[in-house]
Amino acid sequence: MKHLINAVPGLGLLAVLLLGLAACSDDQQAAAIADKDGAAAAPLPPAPESKASAALQHLMATVEETQAKFVTPQMGVTDAYTAGEANRLIAHMLHTGLNFWMEANPSRPVFKQYVDTTRKLLGDNPDSVYYFAAINDDDTYIIRGNIGAAVFTSFTVEGGTQQGRAASRSISALGDYDMDIAPDGSYEIIVSKRKPKSGNWLRLEKGAGQITTRHYHEARLSVASDPAFQMDISIEVVDPEPLPPYAGDEQVAQNLTAVANFIAGHAPMGMVPTSPEMAKTFGWISLEPNVIAKPGQWIGSADEQAYGNTHAFYSMGPYRLAEDEALVIEGRFPEGRFANVVLWNRYMQSYDFANRQISLNRNQITYEEDGSFKIIVAHKDPGLPNWLDTEGRETGKMYWRWVFPRSEPEAPVGKVVKFRSLK
Asked: Where exactly are the structural domains of the chain?
């Protein structure tokens, strides 16, 4: 024992005694097994057949297949740095899929927050809170809530999303501009196939599988940076059927399969590089570093597109800065409901907005005397207003949003300068 204590500096005597007792116990058990009639231990019985076991294997295989398909040079992953980003997104998709679908019950839905400070996907926004709820297409629901301090609130029913699949279309949408809202900000929404005689209504049709909500804010502190922040919102089924007995293995298998579907469906949305054809189709995507594209609206109509806000203008493009460079962006915001700019990595995940200033909304910006703005994208603090912190990332994406602008937004103009020239 003395030799053991000397061999492990700093290890307490009690810990050493426990280790010794454990070793003795293991030796005694091994001796008892070996001495019993001189026979070897009986083999363990085979694992029982289980749909959940097979579904979990399928989920793990889906993660491996996603990695094999998207963490490749063909998808622009040519170094360890980018591979780290790609694998992080896969982990975030797995986390989100488990959060949404592992315990989902469309007959008793609850709103789950889409993203937070450490779980991001699909182009998150530090100035917005998003919620998800899994639903059945033949039930009737009632949503209750309060718009609070949100400058824009909307609800969307997505189709093709049953059992965790990615949305293929928007079935219906309802924004605060079309809602009956009480003077105290409260509201109720009926979600059903049949239109109610009065009140707010979200239409359901065959294939509806989820509801997505948006709650944009223009606060001095980005609303999503507060982990404790919650909107006042709930959903419940009208005239629910009695709760059935727990389905056990079959139910676990079904939910694990939904998680796998979620990853398989959402990986292409975030991991396929933007092609010139895609940029041309959208019209508001720039592929040239440090050039901000002319703002445009989401293509198509609400019935054809999923996840896009058809009441907003967007612009997206890359930045590229050497260690000694900065990007100075000048522009002007039109009047409207909301506007901001966010820095993303290549997989549409925002940078660390919990600890850094990686986005700016209109209430966070310091303006010039004529009402215009000057934003500085740089790797380190220039000691000037409106700094967007790149986290030292040489490349990334800039994403602009203008919601319900009263006039068509103009593209801000960027210019790369030497960091030392900033005044």
From this structure: 51-239+249-270, 276-421
